[in-house]
Write a sequence for this structure.
């Protein structure tokens, strides 16, 4: 699994996960909105878009891994000139375009025409992948980016050596997390899925505050990312999902500070629809009971708040903050 950050000359970014699910033998491009709430380098909550700008590839990769409950193998920064070259190298792409993309020159014909099976050159593919009409939702532009990536995967070779040669021809300075050989091998696997019709594109829906709902996280983890939350690597911080059901805005921040200072990875699960009196600390795996008890202690919650239940799909332990949680 690799994360792709598309950067335009104007400074805009779009992000997607390229997922090779070995369990289902399916490939998926998961489109991630810039409004997705993730943790910044200092543990505070920020958005994916700001994280890409401020925290760099490694910080953003770790933040995404935490919020999605999985390990991301590497980061690929794909500036638009390289996307243009990539499309040219694979011999153009075919896309069912959903709109005309106007030329920046007044009176000129559209750069891209709406229609099925449109053949896009590198310049046209970049224009389509980055186009967002005035007043249009980001999801529409993200979907176009996904269509172009799907088109690239259908055209790139499914032979790892040939795909690596294509990557090498781009002459990019790649992130250390993703050497040319590894990127080529990943693209070849995904190309195999795409050519066989076993690749799809999915958008990750987020709530207005940027957090994932339980159902969204469950769907992403189970259906796309491989079946279950990955166990933290040796020495990795335990992921603690926190949902504010206290009714005060400061509860989440107090809990975040307590957890980060305690060595935990904080995952913002947003605000509950209704207020609850008593806090609850849930764990799904019996082996996590002791961890849940330590989390409760860290937050100053009674031992009775800990119970076996269903932790969020993207966290090891889930905390619902009630009115008994003390806000500093």
């Amino acid at each position: 699994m690799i994360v792709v950050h598309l950067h335009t000359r104007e400074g805009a970014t779009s992000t997607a996960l390229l997922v090779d699910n070995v369990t289902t033998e399916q490939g998926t491009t998961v489109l991630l909105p810039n409004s997705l709430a993730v943790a910044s380098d200092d543990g505070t909550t920020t958005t994916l878009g700001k994280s890409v700008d401020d925290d760099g590839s490694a910080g953003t990769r770790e933040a995404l891994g935490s919020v999605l409950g999985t390990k991301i193998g590497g980061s690929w920064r794909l500036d638009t000139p390289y996307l243009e070259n990539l499309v040219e190298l694979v011999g153009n792409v075919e896309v069912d375009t959903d709109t005309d993309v106007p030329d920046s020159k007044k009176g000129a014909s559209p750069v891209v025409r709406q229609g099925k099976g449109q053949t896009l050159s590198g310049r046209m593919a970049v224009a389509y992948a980055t186009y967002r009409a005035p007043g249009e939702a980001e999801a529409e532009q993200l979907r176009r980016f996904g269509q172009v990536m799907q088109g690239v995967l259908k055209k790139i070779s499914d032979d790892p050596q040939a795909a690596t040669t294509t990557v090498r021809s781009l002459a990019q300075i790649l992130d250390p997390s993703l050497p040319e050989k590894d990127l080529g091998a990943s693209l070849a696997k995904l190309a195999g899925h795409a050519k066989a019709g076993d690749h799809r594109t999915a958008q990750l829906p987020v709530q207005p505050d940027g957090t994932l709902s339980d159902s969204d996280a469950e769907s992403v983890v189970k259906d796309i990312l491989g079946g279950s939350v990955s166990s933290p690597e040796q020495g990795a911080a335990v992921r603690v999902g926190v949902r504010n059901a206290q009714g005060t805005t400061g509860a989440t921040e107090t809990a975040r500070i307590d957890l980060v200072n305690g060595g935990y990875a904080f995952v913002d699960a947003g605000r509950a629809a209704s207020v609850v009196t008593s806090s609850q600390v849930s764990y799904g795996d019996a082996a996590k009971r002791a961890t849940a008890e330590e989390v409760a202690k860290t937050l100053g919650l009674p031992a009775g708040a800990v119970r076996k239940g269903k932790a969020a799909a993207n966290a090891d332990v889930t905390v619902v903050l009630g009115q008994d949680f003390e806000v500093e």
